[in-house]
Write a structure and sequence with these properties.
Layout (H helix, E strand, L loop, with lengths): L9 H4 L8 E3 L2 H10 L3 E6 L4 H11 L2 H10 L1 E6 L4 H15 L6 E5 L5 E5 L4 H17 L1 H15 L14 H13 L17 H14 L2 H16 L13 E2 L7 E2 L2 E2 H18 L2 H17 L10 E2 L2 E3 L5 E3 L7 H7 L2 H10 L27 H14 L7 E2 L2 E2 H17 L3 H17 L8 E4 L7 E4 L2 H18 L3 H17 L32 H16 L2 H20 L5 H12 L2 E6 L6 H6 L5 E6 L16 E4 L2 E2 L6 H7 L6
Parallel strand pairs: 1-3, 2-3, 16-17
Antiparallel strand pairs: 2-4, 4-5, 6-7, 8-9, 9-12, 10-11, 13-14, 14-15, 16-18, 18-19
Length: about 675
């Protein structure tokens, strides 16, 4: 075993038996490189990554490759999910060098951590050639190394010195973004652009927001068609619920099979929003299936949510294949179900002898995108198939608990529990909130990023801006769902930690790392919405909503400065700024507060029907917030900026007061 045997990250421990002399990220590795006078070979990946496993098998488990790595370099392995701050710095360098990125990521660094060359996946022959070339350049052409270092360091510093706009962006940005999404919409298959297709959850939510608040029917239609296409396709696990990370093709047929917690969180949000805003039952069914999957397969017994399930799984002979756990042959179907039912299932899911993926069949309705909720007879058969599937070897589980991803899931789960009036979901959300408070904070109250039950300590790695922003939003929404004001108080504490430790007083916005955190080669700001919201856009939404509930204008003021910093990103790349644009939409449309002193009682149905993305809810326990002053139990109050614009109303008239025309 190498040094990674002492780590708790499931991904790092996957490499503990490699013949490579791996180091974890840290001072020991940099000191060794400086002492030996050799470069660092940095390899970054994550547990559920298929191509990470491929490169590990071809290169890191190979004695010849490992020998060259050990002689020529100090080798460092990083779990990008534990250390997204490290990953982001060097991914930006790789993208500047090659024009693309991805994992596994391979980067060559000077002993002080500065990058000079990098790429992604390399097969064994190419990797051996690359290492020989890097060693030649390092030993004989050091000027070339210095040239690359200087160019890349300039590129890496751009987010740190990005200048904000002088004023708050206007609604023209929103109009341009919605128009850009419409122009890029795939009218035949749904979604945006060509293959590979990702869920684009934040862009879909922006379209739903435009429909719900502004009445943009075209935006609604694009969102609905995309949601239907994803739910009907192979990316959706029709038997077990939940979604794979993306589709490798334009048709949403073949997924990249890993299942990530953050995708479940963000997809749950948009299917819940679609269900409530359109009234379509099929979106509600998809949302229920997502929650069922997460609570069944991704939940620690004490309430934390695990990170991911792998793309690969073992067949009955023990050989690993991508997606084997999820795929079927007609023979397997017929061996489980009686003939008439087997015939119905194979027709419903277009199962053939030749298959649609490596001789097997991904279950899909992608040719019948508006008809993916099965009739009862097929639903019964699907339950039998699901139970049979549970006897197969499961994909590997990455059972670390990440604060950011748990925050995203908690936000969506709390909102879904409230809107669907589901006590079981609310109970799970409350247990998750308690888990995060108990396990992911130090004795001094500082938040940590990653938790694993095998670790000592269990929580480790200082929280990043995205972790804290996700907690602020999650606890705010948990307070709205439960009526317990203590959660809003915890959200305020996390917001204070975020602004005290990550805020840039000169240019505004949030640095990824805290003021007292480990110093990387640059201190970046997370500005682009990718698979997850950027730290800054997530904070903008959370601070606007928290400010509305607490009446503390400082939160909204910081959100305004973040939006000014994000202005260039929203203008230049609206498709990579979906959550930033949602924050702007929230700011420009205004946050409306619904105040109900005491229990929801008879108000509950009207409140749930009235969902809109710019509505925040305070109910249940009274506290010292200005929003409660002078309010009388048994009435509802609609307020804006803590000024009640509507008279108090009883349950019978609340529907009229909450109509969109009164928003």
């Amino acid at each position: 075993m190498n040094r990674l045997a002492n780590e708790v990250s499931p991904y790092l421990r996957q490499h503990k038996d490699n013949p490579v002399d791996w180091y974890a990220w840290g001072d020991e590795a940099f000191a060794a490189a400086a002492e030996r006078g050799v470069p660092i070979l940095l390899s970054v990946g994550y547990s559920a990554c298929h191509w990470c496993h491929v490169m590990a098998h071809e290169c890191f488990e190979d004695a010849e490759v490992a020998r060259e790595m050990n002689v020529q370099f100090v080798n460092v392995k990083v779990d990008r999910e534990e250390r997204p701050d490290v990953d982001a710095v060097y991914m930006e360098a790789v993208q500047a060098l090659t024009g693309r990125g991805g994992w596994p990521m391979t980067v060559f660094l000077t002993p002080d951590g500065k990058p000079f060359y990098g790429g992604t996946y390399f097969p064994k022959p190419s990797f051996l050639q690359l290492m020989a070339a890097i060693t030649d350049v390092w030993q004989n052409r050091r000027d070339d190394v210095d040239t690359n270092v200087n160019a890349l360091m300039d590129a890496l510093s751009r987010s740190e010195i990005s200048a904000p706009a002088s004023v708050l962006p206007g609604s023209d940005l929103l109009d341009h973004a919605v128009g850009s999404l419409a122009a890029n919409f795939d009218r035949e298959w749904g979604g945006f652009g060509a293959a590979p297709k990702f869920p684009s959850t934040m862009n879909v939510d922006l379209l739903l927001r435009s429909w719900t608040v502004s009445g943009n029917v075209s935006a609604r239609d694009i969102a609905v068609e995309t949601l239907d296409a994803m739910a009907a396709g192979g990316m959706h696990d029709h038997l077990g619920g939940g979604f794979a990370r993306y589709s490798v093709d334009r048709q949403w047929l073949v997924p990249h099979f890993e299942k990530m917690l953050y995708d479940q969180a963000l997809l749950l949000r948009i299917y819940v929003h679609a269900a409530v805003s359109t009234g379509e039952e099929r979106f509600s069914r998809v949302a229920h299936n997502i929650v069922s999957y997460v609570l069944r397969d991704l939940r620690h017994p004490e309430g934390g949510f695990y990170s991911a399930e792998d793309a690969d799984s073992a067949d009955l002979d023990g050989h690993h294949h991508e997606g084997w756990f999820y795929t079927w042959t007609p023979r397997e179907i017929r061996s489980i179900l009686p003939s008439p039912v087997a015939d119905l299932v194979t027709q419903w899911f277009s199962i053939t002898e030749s298959g649609n993926f490596e001789g097997r069949n991904i279950l899909t309705r992608h040719h019948s995108r508006s008809d993916y909720i099965p009739p009862s007879e097929i639903s019964d058969a699907m339950r039998v198939l699901f139970e049979t599937r549970t006897t197969r070897p499961r994909p590997l589980l990455d059972n670390k608990v990440l604060t950011e991803w748990n925050g995203l899931m908690l936000s969506s789960l709390a909102e879904a529990a409230f809107l669907f009036d589901n006590d079981e979901w609310l109970a799970a959300a409350l247990v998750n909130g308690e888990f995060l408070l108990r396990e992911l904070r130090t004795n001094t109250g500082r938040w940590q990023r990653s938790w694993h039950e095998d670790g000592t300590p269990r929580a480790r790695h200082a929280a990043l801006a995205a972790d804290l922003a996700a907690i602020v939003d999650a606890f705010t929404r948990l307070g709205e769902a439960s009526g317990e004001s203590r959660w809003v108080g915890h959200a305020v504490d996390a917001a204070d930690q975020l602004l005290d430790n990550h805020w840039d007083p000169e240019l505004g916005g949030l640095f990824t790392t805290a003021n007292d955190a480990e110093r990387l080669v640059v201190r970046q700001k997370d500005l682009l919405d990718n698979a997850t919201p950027s730290a800054n856009s997530l904070a903008a939404v959370a601070l606007l909503r928290l400010g509305a509930l607490t009446g503390e204008s400082r939160f909204a003021n910081h959100a305004d400065r973040i939006l000014q910093l994000l202005d260039p990103v929203m203008r230049r790349a609206p498709s990579a700024a979906g959550n930033s644009l949602a924050a702007l939409h929230l700011r420009l449309a205004g946050v409306s507060e619904l105040v109900i002193p005491g229990p929801l009682g008879a108000f509950a149905p009207s409140v749930r029907r009235a969902w809109r993305p710019n509505l925040v809810l305070a109910w249940g326990e009274t506290d010292s917030s200005p929003i409660w002053e002078g309010r009388t139990a048994g009435h509802a109050y609609l307020c804006h900026d803590h000024v009640c614009m509507s008279p108090s109303v009883d349950a019978a008239s609340l529907d009229e007061q909450l109509a969109p025309s009164h928003q």
